[in-house]
Amino acid sequence: MVAAQMKKASMKILIADNCALMREGLKLILRRAFTAIEFGEASECRQAVEIALQHKWNLVILDFAIPGRGGLEVIKDLKARQPRLPVLVLGRHAQHQFASRVLRAGAAGYLTTATTRAEFVKSVERIVAGGRYVSADLAEQWASELGQAPAGPTLHER
């Protein structure tokens, strides 16, 4: 029900990626999934922060490797100035430690660029609705590590 309403509601999404082809591809996927959608674009860190602060966005989609100070710094800047602005990070690394850093910095979600179109749309729906999102693969990595015994004595035990 929420997803159906969201597909019809007006959304504003800022796509911050230095690759014009990637920005166009993301816009094409999102236009097919949502009927009323507007986009902003940025190709480097400073521009991404400036544009994000000039308008009211429902979501910022951020390439972690965007040129400039780096994706973590962009997330921290945005969260310091607009704490409620959700950020979905697209990265090339599937390691859960990398995703953990992004989420701790304030991002609402993390996906790798190998993500399917359906999962990308699902993540946008969930984050715009106020949730958080990581891929099932990353969640499984975290869960399996939580179930393992520590390699040595814990800090508390020491």
The shape is globular
Structural class: alpha/beta
The proportion of strand residues reads 15-25%
Radius of gyration computed on alpha carbons: 17 Å
Number of strands: 6
Share of helical residues: 40-55%
N/C terminus separation: 51 Å
Brief overview, please?
The chain has 158 residues and is α/β, with parallel strands linked by helices. The protein has helices at residues 2-8, 20-33, 45-54, 71-81, 96-104, 117-128, 136-146, and strands at residues 11-16, 37-42, 59-63, 87-91, 109-112, 133-134.
Description:
By secondary structure, the chain is an alpha/beta fold. The chain is built from seven helices and six strands. It has helices at 2-8, 20-33, 45-54, 71-81, 96-104, 117-128, 136-146, and strands at residues 11-16, 37-42, 59-63, 87-91, 109-112, 133-134. A six-stranded parallel sheet has the order 2-1-3-4-5-6, sandwiched between helices. Helix 3 runs parallel beside helix 4. It is globular. The mean pLDDT is 86.
SSE layout and pairing:
Blueprint: H1 2-8, E1 11-16, H2 20-33, E2 37-42, H3 45-54, E3 59-63, H4 71-81, E4 87-91, H5 96-104, E5 109-112, H6 117-128, E6 133-134, H7 136-146
Parallel strand pairs: 1-2, 1-3, 3-4, 4-5, 5-6
